[in-house]
Amino acid sequence: MYRGYKELHDAALAAGALDAKTKELIALAIAVSKECDGCIAAHAHAVVRQGATPAEAAEAIGVTFLMNGGPATVYGARAYDAVLEFHEQAEHEKAA
């Protein structure tokens, strides 16, 4: 089951009409909407790996505020903190 889900994951997030970064930003926004901490961590890390900036992540998270109201402001803050953490880590790795 997990192998099948991994195949679905990889196919859904592969570059196509939308690039992988855009798809990961969408996934991060959905993770906030679903209030899934594990999903937030995974997709926050992935958006940074795909080259998204904190500003791009903030805009994607901001859309969840519109669509989900109050709960998104809680999970959105968690998601943005995760993006910042992974972004800082990536910057340190580049500098090393």
TrEMBL record:
Cited Gene3D superfamilies: AhpD-like
Boundaries of every Carboxymuconolactone decarboxylase-like domain copy: 2-79
SUPFAM superfamilies for the chain: AhpD-like (SSF69118)
Species name: Paractinoplanes hotanensis
Protein name as annotated: Carboxymuconolactone decarboxylase family protein
